[in-house]
Design a protein that fits this description.
By secondary structure, the protein is mainly beta. Helices cover 5% and strands 34% of the residues. The protein folds into two domains: 128 residues, Thrombin, subunit H, CATH 2.40.10.10; 108 residues, Thrombin, subunit H (Beta Barrel).
Length: 292
């Protein structure tokens, strides 16, 4: 973990838990930098997909990042995936988004309301290291997770700071609400704007029915969205966060990262996310080993 990262161990209603938090380095109080510290969102946009729906300021979801790539030095950076800040040095995204041989061609953009405008709050960093899960399977998408270590740490403030990484115990808590977030990259609509949509988590047994994902969703994944379609993150938001508010903790947790986008808002094909809490100890080990 980075020198700024600390661990808070707490006793909750359902037992012991662990969350990451960060030592403050600015005049703002340390409490401000506790991970996932945002009021619960109560606005719903269930009649549209996230991509093409209502815009939202990055201060609402300050851990959201754009993972960008350029094929050569003369080409512009364009978004290929989404991701989430889990530490000022670390981004979490999907393993299918990144290639270790291409880390020099990657850029992480944070603190932006839009991708086509450099806001005063915008921060950018290049990638120093890519850690992909060794068991990642590009066919089944099992273990589709990657950690990106930044060359330059992000400066934490109200526009850029981390979401909580859940452990196994967090899965037992009730999520008051969950949202998917990402930057609109569709041909129609307000391209490049940060957007959100409230979603429901559904049982894996329901999601795996033959008329839906036909038993292709494994135990380390979960489904969100509507069977009628219309709420989706689409291809360029693979790796983007599923943000769930845990009321007993009064903060947001990174419950899942988007791993599948074979369709975009089509009926009977809900969003599929990797369960982050099932890989908590891998995340912790990978970040610790990177420092040695």
């Amino acid at each position: 973990m980075s020198p700024s990262m600390k661990i808070l161990i707490f006793m909750g209603a359902l037992g012991w838990g662990v969350i990451f938090y960060f030592a403050a380095t600015s005049p703002l109080s340390e409490e401000y930098y506790l991970c996932g510290h945002r009021p619960e969102r109560t606005i719903e946009h269930r009649d549209k997909r996230m991509i093409g729906a209502e815009n939202v300021p990055v201060s609402v979801w300050p851990w959201q990042v754009s993972v960008q790539y350029r094929p050569n030095s003369s080409a512009p950076f364009t978004q290929v995936c989404g991701g989430a800040i889990i530490d000022q040095y670390w981004i979490m995204t999907a393993a299918s988004c990144v290639n270790k041989q291409q880390k020099r061609q990657l850029l992480i953009r944070a603190g932006s309301d839009r991708l086509d405008v450099d806001d005063e709050s915008t921060q950018q960093s290049r990638v120093a290291r890519i850690i992909k899960h060794k068991r990642f399977n590009p066919v089944t998408l099992r273990y589709n997770i990657a950690l990106l270590q930044m060359k330059t740490p992000f400066e934490l403030n109200e526009f850029v700071y981390p979401i909580c990484v859940p452990d196994d115990d967090t899965a037992d808590h009730r999520y008051e609400s969950c949202h998917i977030t990402g930057y609109n990259a569709q041909p129609a609509g307000d391209v490049g704007a940060l957007q959100e949509a409230k979603v429901d988590l559904m049982s894996r047994s329901l999601c795996n029915r033959p008329e839906y994902w036909n038993y292709t969703v494994p135990a380390d994944m979960l489904c969100v969205g509507d069977f009628g379609g219309g709420v989706d993150g689409c291809q360029t938001n693979i790796g983007g966060p599923l943000n769930c508010y845990v009321k007993i903790k009064e903060r947001y947790f990174l419950i899942g990262i988007r791993v599948k986008a074979t369709s975009c808002g089509k009926p009977n094909q809900p969003n599929v996310y990797l369960k982050v809490y099932s890989l908590y100890y891998w995340i912790e080990r990978a970040m610790n080993m990177a420092l040695h």
